[in-house]
Amino acid sequence: MQIKTGPGEIITEPNDETIEKVIRGLLNEPTDPFAILETDDATNFIQTYVHNPSNCEVEYWDDLFQHQYKLDPVPIETVISLFRSYCHDENVLEE
Question: N or C: which end of the chain has fewer CB within 10 A?
């Protein structure tokens, strides 16, 4: 897994603390407040665009089913939880 941000930061094998730091850091990003957490082969991902702490967009791509899911508005706490679940290979759609 790796997480990428709008400003160009790439972090490989992020842990729960790093995920929270990256997502919360998007609140201070004036131009590209998004992050994408993707599998090593980049075929599956979850991404977010942060407007403010109570209004984030989340998209999830499932390559197996060739389907993209979108949720909004989503509070930032839920975004952090979804990213952590995805990183731990849990089914984020059950959240």
Answer: C
Nearest to 87 by CA among 32, 26, 27, 22: 22
CA dist 45 and 71 (Å) reads 14
Are 60 and 38 within 8 A, CB to CB?
Answer: no
Question: From CA 92, how far away is CA 20, in angstroms rounded?
Answer: 16
pLDDT in tens, 9-33: 999 999 999 999 999 999 999 888 9
Torsion of CA 11, 25, 81, 94, to 10 degrees: -80
pTM above 0.85, yes or no: yes
Task: Count the Cβ atoms, other than its own, within 10 Å of residue 25.
Answer: 15
